[in-house]
Amino acid sequence: MTVKGLLVMDVDSTLILEEGIDLLGEEAGVGEQVAAITERAMRGELDFKEALAARVALLKGLPLSVFDRILNKIHFTPGAEKLVAELHRRGYKVAVVSGGFHETVDVLAERLGIDYVKANRLEVEEGILTGRVLGDIVTKDTKKAYLEKWARENGVEMAQTIAVGDGANDLPMIQTAGLGIAFCAKPIVQEQAPYRINERNLLKVLELLDRGCK
Fold first, then answer.
1. InterPro entries in the record, alphabetically (predicted)?
2. Residue 114 CB: number of other CB atoms within 10 A?
3. How many domains does the chain have?
4. Active site residue 12
C-alpha cells in the first residue's frame, strides 16, 4: 500500500504532557536541578548534548525498575491516540524522535501503534543506571535527519511530511517538514516555526493538515 505521508513528533511535552527526564530527576532526589537544565535546553540557552549529559549524570545510581514507576506518571497529551489512529487510517506513517530514552519511549510508542522510534539509551550495569548515555545522543540534527530518512524509506515527498515539537532541538525538523508545527512551544520555537498550536490538543494537527497548510 502506498504511504500517503509521514508525521514525526517529539515526545516530552508533545506526545506526552510530562518531561520524562524531569520525572527521573524527581526519583533521584534532584528534580529541581534536572528541571532547570531541561528548561534552559528547550529554550535554546544550552547545547542539548551537554545538557543531556549533565542531567543523565545526576541519575547515576537509580535502579532500572524506576522506569515502571515513571511510566505510571506519564500521560498522553489529549488527542494523541486519535491523531495517530486517524493518520494511520489515511495511510500515513507515524514516528517519534526523542531526546528522551528508549526505556520509556518504546513502551509509549507500542501503546499507540507508532511505526518508528528514535531515542537515547541509558547505560545500565547490574540493573543500575551508570549516569551515562550509550551511543550517539539524539540532537536537533538527528531529529531532522530521521525525518528525512523515514520519508525517503517510504517514498514520501517532504511536502507530505509533518513535524511537531516544542523545544529548540525540534526546530530543524519543524522547518524542514512540509507542515512544521510548534506545539505549546518555547518562545524561540514559536517565533521560528511556520505554524503554531497553543492548545494542548494534538487533534489540532489534523485541523492544520485539513486546511491545506503547507
1. HAD-like_SerB, HAD-like_sf, HAD_sf, PSP
2. 22
3. 1
4. yes
